[in-house]
Amino acid sequence: MRKLGYAILFILIIGCNQNPIKNYDLVIKNSNVIDIITGEIDTQNIFISEGQIVKISTSFNEGHYTAKTEIDGSGKFALPGFWDNHVHFRGGDSLIAANKNLLKLFIANGITTVRDAGGDLTPQVMEWKEAIKKEELLGPTIFTSGPKIDGPNATWAGSIPVENDIEITKALDSLEQIPTDYVKLYDSRISGEAYLNTIREAEKRNIITTGHMPFTVELDDAITAGIDGIEHLYYIMKGCSSKEGAITKQLQNKEIGFWQAMPALQTSFNETVAQNTFSKLKKNNVYSIPTLNIGRILSYLDEVDHSQDAYLQYMGSGIIKTYEMRINRVKNSTAEAIQNRKELDTFFGKLAKTMSDAGVSLLAGSDSGAFNSYTYPGISLHQELEAMVNVGISPLQALQNSAYKGAQFLKKDADYGQLIEGNKADIVLLNANPLEDIQQTQNIDYVIKGMQVLDKNDLKDLLKSAVNKD
Predict the structure, then answer these.
(1) pLDDT grade, residue 56 (50/70/90)?
(2) How far apart are the C-alpha atoms of 426 and 415, rounded to whole Å?
(3) What is the pLDDT of residue 62?
(4) How many Å apart are CA 382 and CA 221, to the nearest integer?
(5) What is the SS3 assignment for 383?
(6) Would you say residue 218 has pLDDT above 70?
(7) C-alpha neighbours within 13 Å on the C-beta side of residue 351
(8) Please, where are the H alpha helices in 269-399?
(9) Which of 82, 85, 159, 230 has its CA 20 to 30 A from that of 36?
(10) Which one, of 140, 139, 100, 141, lies nearest residue 119 by Cα?
């Protein structure tokens, strides 16, 4: 028996020595990993190689290993890198450098992915997108719509005008050739017919569509056509009105305009109609992007002095000058219009909470970028998460509305959105639990973006380098 015992022991020793040493690029030890679906937290170790999570375990009984970099995550909270699901890179050739500089602000705020919702810098955005993918440029992964689709003489530069089916086909062909990641529709000049036909044609091509909605169209028609996402809450509110049909006819007949319709839509909000609308949105998997934070900022431009905002130093004079458009609009508004806007802002907060309770998928997006006054890239995503929590959405739900649902919306959830084996190594390590206090999303200790590892000192240096000195 003793000889057999020695033999078994010898075999075990030989067997252990034959286990190969596992090599990793990065190991994060003993971090509190937040399950973004359930909110459960486990102390786990994350093993990363070539920018991918290859193993997550609760113990180190994995045999021998080596790591080029090792992080002690004790007391830290790990979750997927944040997604800002509505940003803009725009402003023309004179603002190319200023827009590129904004990439630093996203990473410094733990935002590892952004959804660019259309602008006039598509060639540059595509260059940045590729350079970021190759890790030749530090910035968030960019998913972009490229140019918006609108009607003739559109409000935003770079938009593709469509009036008929031939132009719709050419527009979608050109976007697929770029190639863009989805289609963004805008409502400044597009006809209701061209809008719906664009959605239908995109649906045939299996292209994701999102955007504004002409008020000459009823929300149910957009849902039926196959729209995948509704940017902002004006259009959701319209679909919750008991008088949507009558008000739509007034708009079609040009008896009233967009802003004149707001009070009528708001006062005719009907709970039964709203719940039916929410059911349709949920059944058809249509996402809503509330953009609550920018709504509040723009609603209170007459009261809040932003001249000392810390993030102004990163914007540069060119981007700051674009803020004048909305600032002047407020200066030229009547007292009644300003008050209506504030009441609408309060209403939208309640609407977002009601939608969330009804199971409609929301996305956290800041709408940051040139022309959107004092809505700063990076920090405004955290403010959006806080705005969601302030209206009664739970911290876990708010966090899900960032990376987890953002990846689902763009059908990228095979690679992004959760800290699971096989996913991209886009990770933030926080110093405190954001499920207890959503403001802790700003309390960042590390940002991991693929093979790039930035600690809090690196992030501070990144912010310093982002100061615009033009």
Answers:
(1) very high
(2) 10
(3) 56
(4) 34
(5) helix
(6) yes
(7) 29
(8) 271-283, 292-299, 312-322, 324-331, 335-357, 379-390, 395-399
(9) 230
(10) 100
pLDDT tens column, 246-275:
999 999 999 999 999 999 999 999 999 999
Nearest to 273 by CA among 200, 219, 195, 222: 219
Amino acid at 79: L
Token output for 222: 């957009």
Amino acid at 125: V
Angle, CA of 64, 69 and 75, to the nearest 5°: 95
Q: What is the dihedral of CA 31, 35, 40, 46, to 10 degrees?
A: -20
> How far is 296 from 301, CA to CA, in rounded Å?
9
- At residue 97, the pLDDT reads 97
Say whether 279 sits in a helix, a strand or coil: helix
d(CA 99, CA 122): 12
Q: Kindly report the average pLDDT of the chain as a whole number.
A: 94
User: How does 394-406 read in b/e, with b if 16+ C-beta sit within 10 Å?
Assistant: ebbbbbbbbbbbb
Host H or E run for residue 126? helix 122-133
Q: What is the pLDDT of residue 64?
A: 78
pLDDT digits (tens, 9 = 90+) for 398-454: 999 999 999 999 999 999 999 999 999 999 999 999 999 999 999 999 999 999 999
- Name the DSSP class of 292: H
Q: SS3 breakdown of the chain: % helix, strand, coil, rounded to 5?
A: 45, 20, 35
